[in-house]
Each structure stands twice: as structure tokens, then as C-alpha cells.
Amino acid sequence: MSMLALPEQEYDFEEDEIEHLTSDELDECLEDLCRSKASEFHLYGYENVTPEQIWACVSDEHRQGTPRLNRLVNDIMSLKASRFMNWLMLHNIYKSE
After folding, report:
1. Which residues contact 50 (CB under 8 A, 6 or more apart)?
2. How do residues 38-49 score in pLDDT, each as one tens digit?
């Protein structure tokens, strides 16, 4: 099994050419990702999963601080139903105590 080597690209951006998201725009993007992941879980039969639960599960890993945006996006989009259900079970156990 060979790995594809992608050529390194050099980007020649001027600082003023890069569009920066506002905090509200970033929050909206992350909410959309969580909604998308919740919808995916609904297709698997987990109909009671909410975007808020997805965010709580993902953000629970990052208690030390805020990770880079690419890490957050990856954590949301790669969240597996089994990992989410394990988190939910533990969360409900500690919440009931």
C-alpha cells in the first residue's frame, strides 16, 4: 500500500488578502458542522442526538485550552457513533451523581 505524496505548495498571500472570520462567523461554522454530524447520526438511527451534545462531546477533550481550528473541525467530522455513545454514557453517569 503506497501513500500518495502531494507536492508541497507555496502560497504567496499578502496578509490583507486573507479573510479572517469573526467570532460569530466561526461559531456559526462550528454549529453547522455539529448539526451536520447530528444529522449523520440520525441516519444511523440515533434520532435523539443534538448538535449541542456533539459539541459537548468534542469540546470535552479540550479542557486545557482551545485547539486550532483544523483540530476542532477534524474532531467533529471524524467523531464516530461508538465514541459518542461512550461519552454520552459516561456523561450521564457523572451527571446523575
Report:
1. 38
2. 999 999 999 999
The three three-digit cell numbers of residue 40, written as one number: 449523520
Domain ranges of the chain: 22-96
For residues 14-51, one letter each, b for 16 or more C-beta atoms within 10 angstroms of the residue's C-beta and e for the rest, the string is: eeeeeeeeeeeeeeeebeebbeebbeebeeeeeeebeb
Q: What global pTM score does this model have?
A: 0.75
Compute the distance between CA of residue 7 and CA of residue 23 in angstroms, rounded to an integer.
33
- Measured distance between the N- and C-terminal CA atoms of the chain, rounded to whole angstroms: 49
Dihedral of alpha carbons 70, 73, 78, 81, sign: positive
> What is the per-residue pLDDT across 30-74, written as a single tens digit (0 to 9) for each?
999 999 999 999 999 999 999 999 999 999 888 887 788 899 999
